[in-house]
């Protein structure tokens, strides 16, 4: 199997939030601010372990996600980026993204980020309706989101994403339309539009289970997505992934690495990684709890011997578990992730990576999905049809 070698994408997880949002099941916590310093030290130590184990890996994208990375004060951010620069080799033109919560950033802070080398900002706006923001437990207002966008431009960010959520409980189409129109008016370079989902263990799941809030309506969400597809195209955005639109030249290179099954390394609590190993690849994940993650790295003297010998490091102190992805698993993962992209999966690339024909390896399900009008093969690529896009989860289940 080929294709996991070469430069990596680097992810850094920052698990701190001011308040836990109603719908959120990410590895994020409110009230742990006192851990910020020790946590940053632990991530710096993890970066050092990796460079001891594997040398200074070349990095093509860096992404700070969370949580709310924009809660980290500039001096801590500087310390962290200094360590990353020491232990990794950032390639020229490297995309460096920070996820930010609009209520947490000011002009000076954004200027500080730009000075440190961040060149892409992803603002978690979610809605431009204040009552909807309150229902989601977001701490910012629509006005603050607009201000943050303006400051980001003033600070020099030439690539800005806005995250929005549609299909909120009882949200009429017109209110979603108003939110998206306001977003388009700002002129962001990238938009991520997500359908609200109810995740187990969240406040929203509790509210839905008790009948306090109705569950999201699939038909309403499909209608909103269909309208958004038209509207975004008219506004000049390319729809390049199920939930993502970009102006030409502004596709998120970091997320493309996940969808194109290229190697990535995650630093921080609960971060996931996928790296080449022998003929295949290995996926592994870090200790989930920020406190345990800090403890694991504080106690470690250095990378274990097998890591120093160059093996993929399931025995690193911060790694909680992992699995080797075999050929069958890798092929279906490559297909499912690739179908998320509007351009679909290249049959040639599949052959190059796995030495097999995609249409033979998945003959049964692909024929069935094709007969149902959910996928189509065109110009050497297999992709979702418009109907397949609206029923994407059903398509993916059949390919597992
Ligand atoms: S700010 Fe983001 S990561 Fe934090 S709780 Fe809200 S949705 Fe989750």
Describe the structure.
- The chain folds into two domains: 8-259, Alpha-Beta Barrel (TIM Barrel); 327-399, Arc Repressor Mutant, subunit A.
- It is globular.
- The strands form four sheets. It has a nine-stranded mixed beta sheet with strand order 9-10-8-7-6-5-4-1-11, sandwiched between helices.
- The chain has 17 helices and 17 strands.
- The mean pLDDT is 94.
- The two termini are 19 Å apart.
- Helices cover 42% and strands 24% of the residues.
- The chain has helices at 36-54, 74-87, 107-116, 130-135, 142-154, 173-186, 203-209, 218-234, 253-259, 290-299, 305-308, 327-339, 347-354, 358-361, 363-371, 386-390, 392-399, and strands spanning 8-14, 16-17, 29-30, 57-66, 88-100, 120-126, 160-166, 190-195, 238-241, 244-246, 264-267, 272-277, 280-286, 319-325, 345-346, 375-378, 381-384.
- α1 packs parallel to α2 (74-87).
- The chain is of the alpha/beta class.
- The structure holds iron/sulfur cluster.
